[in-house]
């Protein structure tokens, strides 16, 4: 007899969620299994490479996980609401800064954006936060400094804030003519769990361990963040090992290396389709730079991919009207190209100093 619970919406939803959670691990396992069949030597080398890379980044992982768990347990992310109070131009700057340093996860940003826009917060300030948030956060900064270097991490933070200010300013100018009124699609505006932080922000409790509920939240966040980072970084390091083994250095240098605009433009254009995840992209970019990719191209790839990756773009498409979506994509590509060019100029100036 077939159990009726198999057909309930709750069970089916749980199975879909389980599949989403496990498919990255499954992808890593399938890659190693295929390698074991067709190239056992490479399978062993890839597994060892991924293990060594995870051990090397472990200190940075621990710190980034602690930051994410601490932000959720204390309620420090509620402070982001204060960035949206003030004059429009000030709000743009504060929104970009908040996006560049905020600990919001990708699942919380979209409901938060919906809540802000539904409350009447100007699209210019929201766009500044919206563009900057996927590029950098405290955890990403720590991992970028560990996987690449501190200079790259600082430059990427500046790029995130700069892109937010640029995008917010453009939207502010366009909004004066009423071209961007009603940015949300019909039926969107509750704000979800992320929006509750703005509608009814709770006080920050720095000594969170004194409250059982916040202590449990710290543990839950730490565990979820650990699993999230572990699965994406494992897949990324396996792919990096294959990239280093199979992609000729001269091909990378020809496509993305060298001087001038073309490598950075190419990296900007391929950033979205070739991008996996902000954490997964870091070791991949590190491997490409080692093979000759221009640092500016790496910066353009990370910035463009962070903002316009397929999951992020789909979320924006579902949330915003087509004209706002098109503007978001256009600002992201323009800002990514500019970030790559400016970073390449900075690297060249440092080398010539």
3D structure, described in words:
This protein is mainly α. The protein is 76% helix and 0% strand. It contains 15 helices and no strands. It has helices spanning 9-38, 40-74, 88-101, 106-118, 123-132, 138-147, 150-175, 192-199, 212-246, 249-256, 261-270, 278-290, 295-308, 310-319, 322-352. Helix 3 (88-101) runs antiparallel to helix 7 (150-175) and helix 4 crosses helix 8 (192-199). The longest helix has 35 residues, at 40-74. The N and C termini lie far apart (77 Å). Mean pLDDT is 76; it is low at 190-196.
Mean pLDDT: 76
Main sheet record: none
Order of helices and strands: HHHHHHHHHHHHHHH
Overall body shape:
globular
Radius of gyration: 21 Å
Percentage of residues in DSSP E strands: under 5%
Number of distinct beta strands: 0
Distance between the termini: 77 Å
Low-confidence stretches: 190-196
Instruction: State the helix count.
Output: 15
Helix content: over 70%
Tell me the structural class.
mainly alpha
Pick out its properties:
353 residues; mainly alpha; globular
